[in-house]
Amino acid sequence: MIEDGLNGAEMLERLASSLRELPDADARLVSTETMIDNHNRLDGIIEAEVAGRELLLIIETRRDAFPRDVREAIWQLRNYQHHIQSIERQVIPFLVAAAISSGARETLRHENVGFYDMGGTLFLPARGAYIFIDRAVPRKSRKIFDTIFKGQRARVLQTLFDRKNDWLAVKDVSEASFVSPATASQTLAELERREWVQARGSGPTKTRKLVEPEKLVEGWQLYLTSQKPLSLKRYYVPEHSADKLMRRLDDACHSAGAEYAITGEAAANAYTPHLSSISQVRCRVGPVEAGKIALERIDARPVQEGWNLAIIDDPSVGKNLLCERRDGINYAKPLQVYLDLLHGSGRSKDMAAHLRSEGLGL
User: Fold this and answer.
1) Is the dihedral of CA 178, 183, 185, 190 positive or negative?
2) In whole angstroms, what is the distance from residue 3 CA to residue 63 CA?
């Protein structure tokens, strides 16, 4: 059934309407919430005719669909298909959802199960009437998939990637990410639905391990391409050496009670040396008031051009920045550095590719 107030019947009507818009096609919603037997109920049945082929679509509906969700739906639909016999029409198992992830679409196509989402994507694997219309997830529905890359949940992803060789319990993730156990648990459960993590055990002893780091990174990249880059506050600090600038910032932040994490080219070069010299430093600093004090102590002057220090205006920065300390400097985690480089200019893209290959192992 559709959750969170979405109207399943309306979604089924939209599917029928989309089928009628196909060349040489017709469709009619026969029923909703149809009992198959005492224990099984279909969300909908549509009779269709496409290119002279008589079809019977037996339908499960979902609010959204990830790989694990569609595997459960496929099992149910196959069971329903066993109960429904039609001499006149080919019976096609079918899933309808507001949004279907790319991984779930691949699974459904592989299993030859039809699907339709509210963006207009349609897959109809009928004999003699095979149809596939592939469209992007609509902006409104895309939020379902994007929330995992925001705020506190993004911290969980950073931790899992950083410790991708480890089996982690909710408590481990919560403590390493500086998030609540509830946030850690919810994020891990969503990653499990996407099949990016593998689970072992159950209850309090349940642990999970990241098994699809590349899909996690690619999903995050896709999300970032739809977002505006975070703005930069540019400063000039009277210091010609990037290394000395970072060390002065480290001292100032320590004395002001601020936290910081160097990112961009300077951090990438620290993890995977690639450039002979770095002239500009990008970083996050927080909390705001403590950060201002730290900047004053290194005589950082706001400028538009000729800057050598840029502070990323990230509203999520506060306490407990996820970072790695190397040679007396706090650097953002490699994955965060890589993502920040994707929004950079100049040599940033080249540095990102080098860091991905040599530092992230992808």
Assistant:
1) negative
2) 6
- In one letter, which amino acid is 185? S
Q: Which residues contact 349 (CB under 8 A, 6 or more apart)?
A: 341, 342
Render pLDDT for 236-259 as a digit per residue (tens, 0 to 9).
999 889 999 999 999 999 999 999
Q: How far apart are CA 71 and CA 83, in angstroms?
A: 19
Question: How many C-beta atoms surround the C-beta of residue 169 within 10 A?
Answer: 18
- The answer to whether 284 touches 321, Cβ cutoff 8 Å, is yes
- 279 phi, psi to nearest 5 deg: -105, -20
- Contact predicate 194/103, CB 8 Å: yes
Nearest to 194 by CA among 181, 208, 179: 208
User: In angstroms, rounded to a whole number, what is the distance separating the alpha carbons of residues 58 and 44?
Assistant: 6
Name every residue whose Cβ is closer than 8 Å to that of residue 206 and which is 6 or more positions away in sequence: 169, 170, 199, 200
Q: What are phi and psi of 73, to 5 degrees?
A: -65, -40
356 DSSP 8-state letter: I
Separation between Cα atoms, residue 242 and residue 230, nearest integer Å: 22
Take residue 315 and report the two structure tokens written for it. 């509203």
Q: How far apart are CA 323 and CA 267, in angstroms?
A: 11
How many Å apart are CA 257 and CA 98, to the nearest integer? Answer: 46
Mention every residue, 6+ apart, whose C-beta is less than 8 A from residue 357: none
Helix H or strand E segment including 35: strand 25-35
Cα separation, 328 vs 320, in Å, equals 17
State the Cα–Cα distance between residues 233 and 236, nearest whole angstrom: 10
**Is residue 4 scored above 60 in pLDDT?**
no
Q: What is the pLDDT of residues 124-162, one digit of tens each?
A: 999 888 899 998 776 666 667 788 998 899 999 999 999
